[in-house]
Design brief:
Largest sheet of chain A: 2 strands, antiparallel
Low-confidence stretches of chain A: none
Strand content of chain A: under 5%
Largest sheet of chain B: none
Structural class of chain B: mainly alpha
Largest interface: A-B, 45 and 44 residues
Mean pLDDT of chain B: 89
Number of helices of chain B: 15
Radius of gyration of chain B: 22 Å
Strand order of the largest sheet of chain A: 1-2
Number of strands of chain A: 2
Mean pLDDT of chain A: 88
Low-confidence stretches of chain B: none
Number of strands of chain B: 0
Oligomer: heterodimer
Shape of chain B: globular
Structural class of chain A: mainly alpha
Number of helices of chain A: 12
């Protein structure tokens, strides 16, 4: 059992990290009052932008190009999310429809561009981030092999962002204002907060984080842009709900889901895991999210004004 | 001139903007948009076979569009059409591969199980919405992914083909393709599904416009609280609406997996489910509007292969145009505001010329 755990853990973490950063992005957007089901599309945009950046820079800057690629994925996701912000904040658009459009535009346009660039529509990078053991920490019994061996630098970056996000949301006036915009936007506005601006920031953070999520997929376990992140954006949405819109809830939920999916993916090659039907492991995150929605239906922590149009000139 | 643009005009403007964006994208990769659109249109309409293929692509889109539109009218957003399609298609495929009946009976059973399968997949989010106030958007997204994996492992365990990425091919008797239609349209993929889709259009038109059920569903869509105050059972109507929407999506699955194709690819959420949202929006959620929008998208999807063979433009341009059209229908307020601005400018010009308003 220990051997399997030791083997599975690094994979589970690698799979969890893009999920976590994307769900965290969704958290900012929804805490600001804007539903963002376009996370999947924003991930694809980051995935694509980082692949293009890295392949064009890798010859000159073999090591640095990966990091520039991560940054490019973030920026691309952020810029793309402005489309969603503009539609939902300025144009009172139905946020679900706008998010759906974002998903569809991203999926189509990135492959469209990739095909003009490479012909096949796939973009392969020469090398991504290396795995490494953290000195000293990886020697700790039990925890060392699980958490500090075979890790990617991006994992620590994302965990850092998670802690910073928690701090920003709960310990700064910015966070209080952002959350106010998602709960009682009119009250926030009467207290002098520029709700429109806060919501733009919220959506753009979600775009940047989802873009980073897509880029992390590329530089860690994928290595190739193929036009799809296989529903990870929707899984992030599920994790956001299961984590009840809280940063550490998201941490727990994404790790839970990430492990389930990882076990399902590798259960065929490891006989000990073969006893669990892979179907159950694959649908587990979605079923458990539905169950959570039912259980929390009376006491949901969802931002109250989520999805509602904010229009100061309405009355 | 009217101050408010009507819905049809808004749809047409959104379509125009989508096509314009498509043209810009073609220009951006150094292709000629006029040439691109000509081949796109030709590819969808230039021969009887291609017209048949356009209609058979439209068949599935009519049904997915109807499904989304029907739920819309009750104020529900059915984003789970893809999953309902998959389950409907799976039920029909199981029947088609296992039962051995005379063709009319077999096809009829396939039709019924496809409706039931899709309807069950629709009822679950409907129930969750009605009983626990779970947002149907989230619930249907989850149901999509559950459906994806249910189909994946069911096909892999019981219906697998040698290829391992798809189910075994259906026997000819269990397909919606019939020889006389195939011959009439010179070997196109057009099939009996179109008849099913057209009947569904009429059926939904009648339900929405001529029945008490339709009236109640629309009342719930307009104003849930007012409907409740007037003694309409809101919960029951929400569940019913999702059930019918799911059934329509199940039929879409039938026409796609047993008509357009002859097997089920696994591990893919059918894009037609999401295109259905575009079809419904563009067709302003009315049955006839859905029909027209579906045929338009049918042309785009059928013509894109020909276009990309004749030019350097990748076929994804069609999907891009459809996606951008959705974006512009969602942001129709932008179009409305621009319209008001144009009106004002005209007015001020008139005034400047000395005309008395």
């Amino acid at each position: 059992m220990w051997d399997i755990t030791k083997l599975v853990f690094p994979y589970a973490i690698a799979y969890t990290i893009p999920l976590m950063i994307t769900a965290l992005g969704g958290l900012f957007s929804e805490r600001g009052g804007i539903i963002n089901i376009g996370l999947e599309g924003l991930m694809v945009v980051g995935f694509f932008a980082s692949a293009v950046t890295i392949t064009s820079l890798q010859i000159f800057l073999p090591d640095l190009s990966v990091w520039i690629g991560l940054l490019a994925g973030m920026i691309a996701g952020m810029l793309f999310s402005v489309l969603h912000a503009f539609a939902s904040i300025n144009l009172n658009a139905n946020q679900v429809i706008s998010g759906t459009a974002i998903n569809m535009i991203a999926a189509a346009i990135t492959v469209y561009l990739a095909r003009t660039l490479t012909g096949s529509g796939n973009i392969t990078i020469q090398s991504g981030l290396p795995r490494f053991d953290i000195p000293l920490l990886s020697k700790i019994p039990f925890l060392g092999p699980l958490l500090f061996s075979n890790t990617y630098a991006s994992t620590w970056l994302v965990l850092g962002i998670l802690f910073l996000s928690w701090f920003a949301l709960y310990k700064t006036s910015f966070g209080l204002r952002l959350r106010a915009c998602g709960e009682h936007p009119y009250a926030a506005a009467s207290a002098g907060i520029n709700v429109y601006r806060m919501r733009y920031i919220a959506v753009m953070i979600s775009g940047a984080f989802a873009g980073l999520g897509g880029a992390v997929i590329l530089v860690t376990y994928s290595g190739e842009f193929n036009g799809s992140v296989a529903g990870l954006g929707f899984l992030a949405l599920a994790a956001l709900i299961f984590g009840q819109w809280k940063p550490f809830g998201v941490l727990g939920a994404t790790f839970f889901f990430g492990s389930a999916v990882t076990i399902a993916n590798i259960s065929q090659v490891i006989p000990e895991l073969g006893v669990i039907p892979p179907l159950l492991l694959k649908i587990f995150p979605y079923v458990i999210t539905l169950v959570a929605l039912i259980v929390f239906s009376k006491s949901s922590q969802a931002p109250k004004a989520e999805g509602e149009v904010f229009d100061l000139g309405r009355n | 001139m009217k101050k408010e643009l009507n819905e049809v005009t808004k749809s047409l403007i959104a379509t125009f903007l989508g096509l314009l964006a498509g043209a810009l994208l073609m220009l951006s990769i150094g292709s000629n948009p006029i040439e691109g659109f000509t081949y796109l249109l030709k590819g969808g309409t230039m021969s009887i076979e291609r017209i048949g293929n356009t209609l058979s692509t439209a068949t599935t889109l009519i049904l997915t569009g109807l499904s989304v539109a029907f739920a819309f009218r009750t104020g529900l957003f059915n984003i789970g059409v893809s999953g309902q399609m998959l389950i409907g298609g799976l039920c029909a495929t199981i029947v088609g591969l296992t039962l051995d009946f005379p063709r009319p009976i077999l096809l009829f059973i396939m039709l019924i199980v496809a409706i039931i399968g899709g309807a069950i997949w629709g009822i679950i989010p409907g129930l969750l919405k009605a009983k626990f106030n779970v947002h149907e958007v989230v619930a249907t997204i989850m149901m999509n992914w559950i459906a994806l994996w249910v189909v994946y492992y069911t096909v892999q365990a019981f219906l697998i083909d040698v290829q391992e990425t798809q189910s075994a091919d259906l026997p000819a008797v269990a397909q919606l393709k019939v020889p006389w239609i195939t011959e009439l349209f010179q070997g196109s993929s057009l099939n009996l599904g179109l008849v099913v889709a057209l009947l569904a259009v009429i059926f939904i038109k009648i339900i929405l416009d001529k029945t008490t059920l339709g009236f109640e569903l629309k009342a719930v869509g307009f104003n849930r609280d007012a409907a409740l105050c007037n003694g309409i059972k809101v919960s029951r109507n929400i569940i019913l609406s999702m059930m019918i929407a799911g059934g329509l999506a199940g039929l879409a699955g039938l026409t796609f997996y047993t008509g357009f194709a002859e097997n089920m690819q696994i591990g893919i959420l059918p894009a037609q489910g999401f295109d259905g949202i575009a079809v419904a929006l563009l067709g302003i959620s009315t049955p006839y509007g859905v029909l027209i929008a579906a045929i338009f998208f049918g042309i785009l999807h059928t013509g894109k292969g020909f276009m990309s063979a004749m030019t350097d433009i990748p076929p994804q341009i069609a999907n891009t145009i459809i996606a951008i059209i959705i974006y512009f229908t969602a942001t129709s307020l932008l179009i409305q505001r621009l319209w008001v601005k144009i009106l004002r400018k005209k007015k001020s010009k008139k005034n400047a010329k000395g005309g008395v308003d």
